[in-house]
Please model this.
Amino acid sequence: MTIHRGPDLPYLTVAGVTPSSRGWIVASAKLHAATFAVEPPRLFETFLDVVSERPAFASIVVNVPIGYRDSTEDAPRTCDRAARALLGRRGITIANAPTRESLCEGPNWVTTHVDAASMMKLPRYREFFAEMSPFRQRVVYSGHPELSFYQLNGDLPLRWSKLREEGRQERREVLEKRIQGVATILEAELDVPGKHLYDVAALLWTARRVQGRAAKRIPSDAEWDSEGLRMEYVF
Model:
C-alpha cells in the first residue's frame, strides 16, 4: 500500500465509499499513529476519480461487491451467505452480488433477469466493474455498512433499519462512541441522502481497521472468481 512520506504528508489517508445516484460519496480521514482526523465528505463523479485521487488513498472500503458469479445458475457467493448468517435479521440487507452476465449483457437481458432494486444500482456497479482488477485489490476492499456497524456495535447486529428514526439514532450513537469528530461527516451539507453519510462513516472505520491490519474477512479462507478477483467482505 502507498505510504505518503513527503515533507508535508507524514500520514496516510483512508476512505469509505458508497455509490449514489449523483456519484460516489467519499468519507476520508488522515491516519498517523493513534491520530484519526476525519475530513468533510466529498462527492466524486466517477469511481476512476476516486482511485485517481492524489495523494492516493492507502485503503478504500467500498459498498460494492467485488468478485462475481459467472451466471445466475451458479450458487450465491460464500461471502454473501456467510454475511447474512452473521447478521441475523439484519442479513436481509445483504443481497447476492450481481453476475458477470448482468454486468456485461445488454439492456434486454438485464430487463428480463435483474430485479428492480438491483436495476437502480446497476449503472454504478457496471462502472465499478469496468475499473476493478485483481491489481486494485491491494487498496480497494469490498465492505458493507451493516457489517461495519456490526463490528462497531461490539459484534452485535443493529436493531433498526436506517430508514427509521430509531435506526439513524442508533447508528449515530454507535459512531460517536468510536469516531471522534464523526459529526463532520454526518452533518455535512452534501446534496445526498443522509442515510449514505451514515454508511460512509461506518465504512471509513473499516478502512482504518484494514490499514491497521485489524479487519476481519468473510470468508476467512479466500475465494476467487473466474477472473481472479477475491470474493470477500471486510469489516
